[in-house]
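Why does residue order matter? Because the sequence determines the fold. Keep that principle in mind as you read this record.
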Amino acid sequence: MKHVRVRITARGRAGDIHPMYGVMTEASFVERATAIQWNYTGDALGILHYVVGDADALERAMQEIPEVVGYDMERIDERSCYVYVRDATTDSLQEMFSPISSGGIIVVPPIEYESDGTVVFSMFGTDDEVQDAIEGVSVPVDVTIEAVGGLAGTTTAIEAHLTNRQRRVVETAVELGYYDIPRTASQEDIAAKLDCAPSTIAEHLRKAESRILRAQFS
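Structure:
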């Protein structure tokens, strides 16, 4: 069995593959987007996203896309929301999704969207099934294997090592820019956001980072 970290780059054609793919990767009002969970049936795709950005602009965009047959949005705060979208698929989206959704292949959430039309995700399956899935993506995109390893290296498995509080602190740190280069937020900023002491944030981050690194490299 093999776990692979896959990067698919649309080379500026994300919107041609599916309009919502273009919105999540190329729209100026989406700062960061992640697909948390999904269900693909061939002619329809139900997908739950976590989005940081302008939720009003995102909602207006979805209302203008014919392929969006339904959606539900739950706002977390002024800059983030969860949004469930039910899409009618396009031929190009089927060409991209079908090979990685067939046989015994498991796509391990999340799918991470990047601003250049790239999506990054993990797949788990037998060597032959993984190879066939990658070679079966016929839509004109670039498919790159970033890493090969065991299931313990997947994002979901690593997150399972964190407590709920540690996960919340790390998510807030990422959201505020604590891990950006250069760093744009401090532990004091995270503490203010979560209404707790900076020393508490420092302890949670230290323990979370230790658990993540041990899970990744042990």
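The first strand starts at residue 2 and ends at 9.
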